[in-house]
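Make up an example, fold above all:
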Amino acid sequence: MTGQQYSNNQIEFYSVEYWQDNWDDLIERVENGEHIGIRNNDGEDAVMVPADDDILKLYTEHNEAS
């Protein structure tokens, strides 16, 4: 599955190996607003999406000790 690309008509999925080899380029695409998927050899999927303000607030605006 190395380097293979899959699509569900909205999100492109790449193999874990492809992600490892092309991390910087794929992360840059995500930071620019794309949603990009990862599919492992067992057929399990994950999706990388850009962080929005609400997600960032979860990690920066809290009263818990660090």
